[in-house]
Design goal:
The structure holds two protein chains of two kinds. By secondary structure, chain A is mainly alpha-helical. Chain A has helices at 2-33, 37-57, 69-76, 78-111, 114-129, 132-143, 148-156, 169-193, 198-205, 210-238, 242-247, 255-264, 269-293, 296-299. Chain B folds into two domains: 16-66, no CATH class; 73-272, MetI-like (MetI-like fold, Orthogonal Bundle). Chain B is 75% helix and 0% strand. Chain B has twelve helices and no strands. Classes of the chains: A mainly alpha, B mainly alpha.
Amino acid sequence: MSDLVLRSAGSLATQPNQTELKQDALRERFALFGLCSPALLLVLIIMVLPVGWLFWLSFLGEDGNFTLENYQRMVESKSYARIFRNTFEVSLLTTGICILIGYPLAYFLSQLPRRAANLCMITVLLPFWTSLLVRTYAWLVLLQRRGLINEWGMDIGLWDEPIKLVHNLTGTLIGMVHIMLPFLILPVYGSMKAIDRDYMKAAANLGASPAQAFWRVFFPLSLPGLFAGALIVFVLCLGFFVTPAVLGGGKVIMVSMRIATNIELFFNWGAASALGVVLLVLTLVILGIASRVLRFDQLLGGGHGS
Amino acid sequence: MASLMKWLGEPASETQITHGGRLWLYLLAGLVMAFLLAPTIIVIPMSFSDSQYLEFPPRVWSLRWYDHYLGSPEWMQATFTSLKAGIFTMLVATPVGVMAAYGLFVSRMRIASLIFLILVMPIMVPVILVAIGVFYVYVQVSLVNSLLGLVLAHSILAIPLVVVVVSSALKSYDMNQEMAARSLGASRFRAFMVITLPQIRFSVITAALLSFLTSFDEVIVAMFVSGGENSTLTRNMFNALRDQIDPTIASISTIMIIVSTSLLVLAQVFGKSGDEP
């Protein structure tokens, strides 16, 4: 009985203090939260507002009235359908090639001792930090008619006449794979390094052949990284501009290139905005689906954008 | 030879596979690494060629294209603009991004993850969309072709990188150290500056270098919102590339490769001794 009285007296004494402390803590958290506001404001004003404006423009006709003609044109016109098909094909092919050659390299790197791995990692990081335009230019020089690849190919006798390696799909794919590979390799490497090597020992111990141990133990464990990497590559490819514009020679037209020409040549804001909105929605839907499967910081493990 | 044969027969990993058994993997990995590295490496000697057609190896060595670059007022002005834009972008994006990452980390508000998502948005939205959106708005407020407009646009492209890099460093940082400093009488700001910042400084430096490069290498936004005397180097390069292969660009590329390589080395040197395990 006396115990109860004591306890309730105690709680009576501390209660006001407690609520005040709570309020204080809340106020401090708000103040700290305010630290985000400059960044938030910048992103809202410089990106969200303009993109929202484009969204609005995409529903305006040339006379300034509300219309769906910009979207209608996209559905009806064959040239737009071809551009979207083109964009998806190029993105899928690039992602596929990146997986085929990037996964083995990541595996190789993950098996090396630390020092050697760091050394070989330079070959991945150096292009990653080098300007995209410079790398695209390098391919343009190497792949041109009188370029190094053609000369070497003819010297070794692989082909007799210069073959067309650039200003077409081949050149575009070579350039894009080169630019995208680090975005695939880095997350895959990360997920491979996190795999406990004892699992492989255990598999071997239980009689698995090297191939079995790889496909049934190692490969499934590396899938989250592979999935994240492939997704980043695919999404970046969808919005790609510079490399296809330079190496495609007008034969590979991506959505983003059409958006640019709509503005630069035709000043057609409605059409450009509508294309942009569709591109954005596609990108966000893909990322949205992926974020249900993956954690977001895993997706962003990579680094510097295109 | 005998030692090579012996090495081929040695076990290569935790399974019973030998080095010989995965020779194909070593070959493939070597080829892919060459593919990654070769183009940038080959451009460097080519830029010293005297020929219009950029031979490799150059038959006659010359500094002709460097002379052409250094002697051209347009290229020089563009280089200067790019450097200014890069430095200002770094000076805007780094503090703003670090503040945001810190604020999100310590406030532990429920909407923090939503804010994080908005802040990293600019690297997920296709750049062309940001470019034409910003262009449209800048036309209304006459910021087109201004350095300020360029820096603001580049800053929002750099902020996500700063936020991501610094947030991941804060995750492995023990916040109790800051609490200890404050219980000893330091203000929150002082505790951050004296205790926290020095310990995450390597990520902050990496983030700053990345911000600079983001702006310095950026093409698409610069294409739309920079121009006239504020044309960037990349904008001019891109325009020159669309017309023909100008060998001057090889010399500029070499300089840009040297810049980004030295920044990478800087980041590695600082990063290695740093906070990230």
